[in-house]
Design a protein that fits this description.
By secondary structure, the protein is of the alpha/beta class. It is 45% helix and 12% strand. It contains 18 helices and 15 strands. Helix 12 links the parallel strand 8 and strand 9.
Length: 501
C-alpha cells in the first residue's frame, strides 16, 4: 500500500508514466465519434487541459500504453502524433513523451476526483449512462413491487401527519428509528432507537463515519479486495487504506492483528455478510475474533451489511459483529468494543429509495447526527415513511431476491462454462456478483479495454485491490435478467477471443 500512496502523491511528475495510473484519468475514452487514435488523443488532451496531466508529466511508452489499452502500437503512435501537432506534448530521445512545460490553468475548485481514487471512471460512466453498453459497475435491481403498495399506504394513512410535522429529523424519522431497532433485535442485536441514525444511503453513512474519525494521513484497515467506491470515501477524507487479505471465513486474523499493530489505524472497515466483491460470508468465530482484536487495540470497527442477500438455500448468516462485541466478558470479548453497523435498502428493495442507516453506541450516533444535520438537516421524510412501511417485510423481500439471484447464478455459471471454460470462480453462499479470475494471469485492466469495444463495461480487479493481488479478476453482477446475461457472456467471449493469441 505504501508504494501505491507514493505513486499517487504527485500527478505532475511521473504517475502518468505507469499505464494503469493513466487509465484512471481517461474515463470512457472510447466514447464519441472518430477512429480510436483520435478518441485517445482527445481524452489525453482533455486531461492536459484539466490539469490532471501536469506540465512535464511523462506519458507511458507507445508500446506500454498500447498493451494496457489492448490496441495496436500504431494507434498510440498516431495519438501521440496528434498531441504533438496540438502542442500538448513533446518527445525527446531518452526522455520519452512529456506534457509541454507551458503552464496550464487548472479550473478553480474541485472536479470531484478523489486523489488516488479508483472509482472515478466508474462514477463517470454512471453519469454518462451509455445505453448501448452493458455495465458491470453496479449490482442494482429495479424496485420491488411492494414499493408501490407501501407508497399507497403512506399516502392514505401517514401523509396528513407527516405534513403537519416540521419535516426536520436529523437523526431520522422516529417511526423508522424504532422499526430499525426492532429489525436489529430480531437479528440478535438488542438496540434502542437512539442507537440508530438514518442516512441518505449507506454511502452517506460511511462518509459521516469518515468525517467523524478520519483526518489527513489517518490509517484505515480494509479487506483486500474491497469495493472501490467505499475506499474512495476514506481517501476523500485524506485517509490511507491498508489492505488485509481474505480467506473463506472472512478477513484474515493474522493479517488484521499485524495491521492493527503496525499501522495503528483510526478505523477498521469490513463487509462481513457476503463481502463485496468476493461474496465471502464471515463465520461467527471470525466475527468474534475480529471484535476481540479491535476491542484490544481500542480501534472502532465499521461493519457494512449493505450486501446481505444470500444465494445458497442452506446459508445461515451469523449475527452482526456488533452482537459479539456487546456480548460481554462471558463470551470472550472485552466490553467497550466500539462497532458501527451500516446497512441500507438498496439491494433488497430499491437503490432509488435512498435510505440507509448506521447503528452504534448512542453517544457516537449523537455525534454522527450532528454531522448529518450539517450535511442536509435529515433525509427526506416521505422516503423514510416509505422505508418504515417496508422494513418489517425486509427478510421476506431478501428471500425473494435471493431466489432470483440463485436462478441467475445458475444460468451465468452454465454460460461461462460453455463459452469461457478457462475462466475460474468460487461459488459463494451470497452476494450480488460472481468474482471471476481470468486465465494465464491476464491483466483485467487490459481485458476491460477490449471489452468496452464490445459493449461491456468491466470492473477490473486492480480498482478493488491496489496491491496487485487481484489484477486478473473481474466482478460480474447477478442483477441482469437472464436474457441480458446471455448477451453479456456473448460479448465477454467475443472480447476474450480478440484478446487471446
Amino acid at each position: 500500500m505504501k508504494g501505491e500512496v507514493d505513486r499517487m502523491t504527485d500527478l505532475g511528475t511521473d504517475r502518468a508514466a505507469h499505464p494503469p495510473e493513466l487509465l484512471l484519468l481517461l474515463d470512457d475514452w472510447m466514447a464519441g465519434p472518430g477512429p480510436l487514435y483520435t478518441k485517445l488523443a482527445r481524452a489525453l488532451h482533455r486531461a492536459v487541459r484539466a490539469g490532471d496531466l501536469g506540465a512535464g508529466a511523462r506519458l507511458p511508452s507507445e508500446r506500454g500504453l498500447a498493451r494496457a489499452l489492448g490496441v495496436s502500437r500504431a494507434t498510440v503512435v498516431a495519438s501521440y502524433d496528434e498531441l504533438r501537432a496540438l502542442g500538448a506534448v513533446e518527445s525527446r530521445r531518452g526522455s520519452g513523451t512529456r506534457v509541454t512545460p507551458r503552464p496550464v490553468p487548472r479550473p478553480a475548485g474541485t472536479d470531484g476526483r478523489v486523489s488516488g481514487g479508483r472509482a472515478t471512471a466508474l462514477i463517470q460512466r454512471m453519469v454518462d449512462r451509455r445505453e448501448d453498453t452493458i455495465s458491470l459497475a453496479m449490482a442494482a435491481e429495479p424496485a420491488v413491487a411492494e414499493v408501490r403498495e407501501a407508497l399507497q399506504d403512506v399516502l392514505r394513512t401517514d401523509l396528513a401527519g407527516l405534513m403537519a410535522d416540521t419535516g426536520y429529523h436529523p437523526g431520522g424519522l422516529p417511526g423508522l428509528r424504532h422499526a430499525l431497532a426492532d429489525h436489529f433485535a430480531t437479528a440478535g442485536l438488542a438496540t434502542a432507537p437512539e442507537q440508530v441514525l438514518v442516512t441518505t444511503g449507506a454511502t452517506q453513512a460511511l462518509g459521516l463515519v469518515a468525517q467523524l474519525y478520519l483526518r489527513r494521513g489517518s490509517a484505515v484497515v480494509v479487506e483486500c479486495p474491497s469495493w472501490p467506491g467505499c475506499l474512495d470515501v476514506f481517501r476523500a477524507a485524506g485517509a490511507v487504506p491498508h489492505g488485509v487479505p481474505l480467506d473463506q471465513d472472512g478477513i484474515r486474523v493474522d493479517g488484521l492483528a499485524e495491521a492493527l499493530s503496525r499501522h495503528r489505524p483510526e478505523v477498521v472497515y469490513v463487509t462481513p455478510t457476503y463481502h463485496n466483491p468476493t461474496g465471502v460470508l464471515m463465520s461467527a468465530g471470525r466475527r468474534r475474533r475480529v471484535a476481540e482484536l479491535c476491542a484490544h487495540h481500542g480501534v472502532p470497527l465499521v461493519e457494512d451489511l449493505a450486501y446481505d442477500i444470500g444465494t445458497d438455500e442452506g446459508a445461515r448468516e451469523p449475527a452482526p459483529i456488533a452482537a459479539f462485541a456487546a456480548a460481554g466478558p462471558g463470551r470472550g470479548v472485552r466490553q467497550g468494543a466500539e462497532v458501527l453497523t451500516v446497512g441500507s435498502l438498496a439491494k433488497a428493495v430499491w437503490g432509488g429509495l435512498r435510505i440507509g442507516w448506521v447503528r452504534g453506541p448512542a453517544e457516537v450516533i449523537g455525534r454522527l447526527a450532528r454531522l448529518k444535520a450539517l450535511a442536509d438537516l435529515g433525509s427526506p421524510v416521505l422516503d423514510q415513511a416509505l422505508a418504515a412501511r417496508l422494513l418489517p417485510r425486509l427478510d421476506e423481500l431478501k428471500a425473494r431476491r435471493a431466489l432470483t439471484l440463485r436462478r441467475r447464478l445458475d444460468h451465468l455459471e452454465g454460460l461461462l462454462t460453455a463459452r469461457l471454460p478457462a475462466w475460474r470462480w468460487s461459488r459463494q453462499p451470497g452476494g450480488s456478483a460472481l468474482w471471476a479470475r481470468l486465465p494465464h494471469d491476464t491483466d483485467a485492466q487490459v481485458y476491460a479495454q477490449v471489452a468496452l469495444r464490445h459493449g461491456v463495461e468491466v470492473v477490473p480487479g486492480a480498482v478493488t485491490d491496489p496491491s496487485g493481488a487481484h489484477d486478473s479478476h473481474i466482478r460480474i453482477p447477478l442483477t441482469l435478467p437472464e436474457e441480458r446475461l446471455t448477451a453479456l457472456v456473448d460479448r465477454l467471449a467475443a472480447a476474450w477471443a480478440d484478446l487471446s493469441p
